[in-house]
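Bench log, entry 3. Co-assembly request; chain sequences pasted below exactly as received.
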Amino acid sequence: MTRPTLSVYFSAFFFVLFALMAWLALGYSELARYFPLVLATLGAIIALINFFKEIRELKEADPEFNDENSPTNNTVSDPPITHNFINAFKNFLWVFAYFILIMIVGFLLATIIFLIIFLKARTNFHWFKIIISIGATIAFLLTMGQVMYLKWPQGILGLL
Amino acid sequence: MLEAAIQALQALLDPIRILYMFIGIAIGFCIGFLPGLGGTVGMALVLPFVFGMDPYSAMALLIGMIAVIHTSDTFSSVLFGIPGTAGAQATIMDGFPLAKKGEAARALSAAFISSMVGGVIGAFVLFASIPIAKPLVLSFGSPELFMLTLFGISMVAMLVGKKPLRGLIVAVLGLMLGTVGGAPAVPEYRYAFDWLYLYNGISLVVVILGFFAIPEMIHFLSSNKQISNKPKVSSGGIEGIKDVIKNKFLVLRTAALGAFIGFVPGLGGSVIDWLSYGLAKKTAKNNENFGKGDIRGVIAPESANNAKEGGGLIPTLLFAVPGSGVTAVLLGGLVLLGIEPGPKMVTSDLPLTLSIVWTLAFANVFGTLLCFIMSKPLSQLTTINPNKLVPFLLVIIFVGAYQAHNHWGDFLLLFILGALGWFLKEMEWPRIPFIIGFVLADGGERYLSLSISRYEFDWLTRPGVIIIGAMILLVYISGPIYKGLKEART
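Structure output for the full assembly:
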């Protein structure tokens, strides 16, 4: 899979998104509707034009673009993104895991768990350094919470 | 007025007031440095403590803080590619690439000096405008404000990159996201899906952190190497100062633009840095390095966003019309102190107004000094292994997003927008047009709606509209004309 191929799918996604937003806008009153309706229609048109343009560019670059296993699929200027993408996706999962943890166990506890696992897995920090780092972070969060009157979310389990 | 200015200076030089100003500078430094926290948060934090203070001390504290936020917000923009506040978005365009090249100290130095000059120019504009501001402010109606918004949106065309259609799609998506929440013309909610959190629209802070910060964090982790390509951060402080001197007219031009836009109520501070960046790129010679680490791309927005504070205080103090969230809270602070913003500020309360001018100028100078002192140690952060830095930055980013509404929806949106921003980055689609579209959507719709309901289509013939329209055209045709003339000469 190359970036241009993914961009074609992405353009199609945007076309559907804008079309959906335009359809939703039709349900609003006249004064609330005109701005989002005009914008969404415009967006859908541009996305559609871009969709065909990207397909044309893809065909021009490689006539066998439909065959993903073809060795000629990827041009020199557009190398496969699979390797980098998977690596980046793994790191994206860390962010996702932190977010899910917050939703389940609450912000403070999620931060402690996330930092312990991340620092242990990805750095050469010893336990002492990890504990000091987490202690400083929690102290910072508690101070921020006090000063800014923030009530940290407790998560589904209603813990910390 | 000169006598009143000296009187105000004497009042400010009282040791207690100077101390309050330095406390304000220190708070402003921290707020600007932490991504996601902006001037409005700072004002909200400090405001409860000013109750009962004498007005001069209170203004020294509040203005001291406001003045420095847009200087210290440069740190995270340059060092991590995360805008410190909404007003430092454009700085990342060239500041972060410079940090990657190991020239963080140069970028920071140039940013601080241009911020200081911009801030002092803003203070001067505030001082000079006291007798003449009223007719100017009153000449701006909704049609002119809409045209200025259009001016901002037109900047998208300069920042879309090599594939303009992709940039336009992303800009329209930003505009669409800006329509989420209450419609300006009628009491109706759009794209809220009966979720109370979305009734007030989406917070700019969450959008910025999601779109810029989360993708950058993933990128750091994936690259598994420190931000700076060089193991040691070069000491380019002097070089940065030389850059500012070399581009002195750019500093002056963008500071004047910042003060002017700040002076126009309702346009929003987040637009200024993009406008100044776009204009700098459009009018600069040899602009092919913009976006890749051109120092002029740092100087222009930094100069403008500090200058806007002086401009923004004009309508707030003289007509009680706040131009932004920060000045709206400041207005509340003035009322809390028993001061009535309005014409009195240039008659019986003139010394207080002038003390604000002095504080703005002093705080910019001292804030810059503080930033200079801190720039070397903070620049070292770019040489740390990302695995040791990113988890802590992620925590700060989540805190920054959560303080927007204190709602779990902030986390959810941060994550969704972060995923979208990351995907756009991976796909090499531009992300900047999205932010410009988002920032300008609300103002654009509001002012267009007001213009049509009040004037139908006659608003198109108003002199201000024609002048701003001509300015937009001029920006677009000046480049090709200049190139044509240059080619004809050679």
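The beta strands of chain B are 181-182, 189-190. Chain B touches chain A through 52 residues (CB under 8 Å).
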